[in-house]
């Protein structure tokens, strides 16, 4: 316990799913948490996103660990709003040590308009850049930046268009491109920040057991042979993604990696692409 004792960590997309898991785990290890989430749906994303109630529940979960929490409904696509909300939170908690740029969406489906592409790219990549750049003025030596990519996006890049790797459709293409850019951006950022003793690393999960995975458009991607596939139908296909015989990893599996990269245990680790993918990348 106490691996990130007395650090202050920003987690975007923190109301539920992976983000809430990361926030609670870091709080259990001694960090105070800033929780941001959009708390409304995004056009063309056909599964519901977190609500203000979800964000409040996440804040209370953090506080149950005995640590402080500040939460706000913020759209990571809005650099100005993000900068202002972060300044207020840092003013309340006193500093910022770690950024976990986790917020993301994955709109899927055939025949989607170009808006699905732009929304996915803007949330998943521009939102990461906005989060990091809003936070940089608050960081000092020893700070850590962790971005969340996706092994599916990397596989789509490696396999090429139309190969069936990674999310598909206009929204899926925006998602894939965003996750590929996150990877390149984080490595380039790490090189720029190393002389300042600020670290930047990217975590690439495979399928994770959250609402982003459990919805009909995603089930359809894994079971295109069925008109209306359900969870049990998709569970038969999910293991095809990984090298290990599992359908998905749990949010806490990713949180372990996040906690390591946020802690001083990784004080000399920067520019790392850490894949929590159960061997998915080994299949290509």
Automatic annotation (TrEMBL):
Cited SUPFAM superfamilies: NAD(P)-binding Rossmann-fold domains
Record-level Gene Ontology MF annotations: oxidoreductase activity, acting on NAD(P)H, oxygen as acceptor
CDD domains per record: SDR_c
InterPro entries with a match to the protein in the record: NAD(P)-bd_dom_sf (IPR036291), SDR_fam (IPR002347), SDR_subfam_1 (IPR023985)
Assigned keywords, A-Z: NAD, Oxidoreductase
UniProt-listed PANTHER family: BENZIL REDUCTASE, CHAIN DEHYDROGENASE, PUTATIVE (AFU_ORTHOLOGUE AFUA_4G08710)-RELATED
Stated family: Belongs to the short-chain dehydrogenases/reductases (SDR) family.
Protein name stated in the entry: 3-ketoacyl-ACP reductase
Organism, as annotated: Mycolicibacter terrae
